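Trying the structure run again after the queue cleared.
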Amino acid sequence: MTDAPFDPARWRPASFLPDEDARDPALLFVIGVLCFLACLTALGVIAADRAASGWSSQLRSEATVIVRAQGGETPDAAAARAAEVLAGVAGVSEARALEKEKAYELIRPWLGDVAADLDDLPVPRLVAVGLDRRKPATAATLSAALKGQGLDAVVDDHSVWLKDIRHAAGVVRWTGVVIFLLIAGAAGAVVAYATRAGLAARRDVVEVLHLTGAEDAQIANLFELRFARVAAIAGAAGALAAGGLGVVLRLIGGGDGITPALPIAWIDLLAVLPCPVLAAIVAAVAARLTARRLIRQL
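Done. Tokens:
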């Protein structure tokens, strides 16, 4: 067996594909940039998901009550009475009437500075309600308690905002998945092009290997291993660059990153670690499929 004309155990990649190629720097750069963008996408999706979770948690633990005065009761007195009623409801951690300026701020966009001169009008007051995170009171429970005390009030449990936040988080998440798949496809296309160019440059060698008994899979394996190694190096460089940028943003903005809308945690940076492995897998699959298809045509 050792004297066989073709023995894969005696092969080394350098005998067919040299360790260095003039196209390698460009290939490393392109795949590295793609991996950098993929890692940034992953970090962005994770940060957006964390922000959405934080906002949702905060909204679920709060409610806002709009209180309208009735009869001879003043708006401030009605708000104070509503806060006292709500504070005694099970599932409420605290309730406090907000200053009238808070109510004025809500109508300022429509009335402008005139909103500050509405002391003679019964502008509804606001009551901020803190809910128990373990067993929060429902909007129906709060409304029933207020109605039982003869208060004209509307409870906003922020359910509309929660729905919008969940929808936005889902859009961001799926957008990130699509971007990631597009980047992976682009990387595979680059590797496929490089494989095609490498086979074209060594067409005569491939034909000789065929004559000596080499199978298509064994020849394709040489390209697979080579481009997997190149992609792994590029992926590591891209991941390192993205991780470094994440560290800078974390140091600049603390837990909020560059903006509270995209908070970055140290553990998020671990998301870039699989990048070299994933890049190598994509490159290996693309190179193998391309090489086997082209070799069969020779």
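The radius of gyration is 32 Å. Worth checking whether this holds up in the mutant runs.
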